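Lab notebook, design round three. We kept the backbone fixed and only want residue identities now. Task for the bench partner: fill in a sequence for the structure below.
Input structure tokens:
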């Protein structure tokens, strides 16, 4: 499905910062069949990842001042006014670590962290709204915040992005869904002792037609399995992976709601 616009709070862009641009690009192209439009920049290339010419994300090699960070995906949320939203981040106890600033004529952005340290970005689209395809294989289909203080996270993101929240029908644990209007755009789960010292973070889920087949392919390409293929009742089957450079992401094959 083609995407024409985003509302305040909707996930709208994903961006991979990697220590090995060539290998990272090869991995994701092989796994998801993405095309790539490489645009030169001082540190190498900023690559638009695409499906049939439509941008669905991007990647770039880490510059010198980011080398201490692991390879990682950054999730962007659409906002109506990045200056206003960045100020709300600070008022709600988060930090603005870069921006707000313009990205040419594409739009304006700010890179932020929430009170527990989860990184995310705000995007006020101008010439570039963000991800151009949705509700199809190999595109972003869900985002999920894992944190240790769910109540505080609800307060923070409701203030910054205007979210409403609702508890999902999960038998074994509490799971909160983030809503923009009538649309569930993501989830929230509280980390337990089983997570060890893993930091709070946003996780991206990519839709696939067959979770087991995609998992086997990812492993053959050098990915590490963090969570094996697991069924979520009435939702689908998912797995959490670590790409060969260390970037975490999830895949999920969703059940057909009409079935």
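Proposed sequence:
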């Amino acid at each position: 499905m083609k995407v024409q616009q985003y509302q305040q709070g909707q996930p709208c862009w994903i961006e991979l910062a990697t220590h090995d641009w060539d290998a990272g690009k090869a991995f994701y192209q092989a796994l998801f069949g993405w095309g790539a439009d490489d645009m030169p920049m001082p540190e190498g290339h900023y690559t638009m990842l695409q499906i049939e010419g439509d941008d669905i994300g991007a990647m770039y090699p880490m510059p010198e001042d980011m080398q201490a960070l692991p390879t990682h995906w950054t999730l962007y949320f659409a906002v109506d006014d990045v200056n206003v939203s960045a100020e709300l981040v600070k008022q709600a106890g988060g930090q603005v670590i870069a921006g707000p600033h313009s990205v040419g004529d594409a739009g304006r952005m700010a890179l932020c962290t929430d009170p527990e340290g989860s990184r995310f970005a705000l995007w006020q689209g101008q010439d570039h709204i963000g991800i151009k395809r949705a509700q199809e294989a190999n595109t972003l289909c869900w985002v999920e915040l894992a944190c240790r203080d769910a109540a505080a996270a609800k307060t923070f993101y409701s203030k910054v992005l205007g979210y409403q929240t609702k508890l999902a029908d999960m038998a074994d644990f509490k799971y909160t869904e983030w809503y923009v209007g009538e649309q569930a755009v993501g989830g929230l789960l509280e980390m337990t002792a089983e997570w060890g010292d893993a930091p709070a973070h946003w996780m991206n889920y990519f839709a696939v037609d067959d979770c087991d087949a995609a998992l086997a392919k990812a492993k053959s390409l050098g990915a590490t399995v963090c969570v094996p293929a697991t069924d979520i009742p009435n939702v689908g089957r998912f797995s959490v992976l670590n790409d060969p450079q260390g970037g975490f992401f999830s895949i999920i094959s969703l059940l057909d709601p009409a079935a």
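Keep this in mind before ordering anything: The first helix runs from residue 21 to 32.
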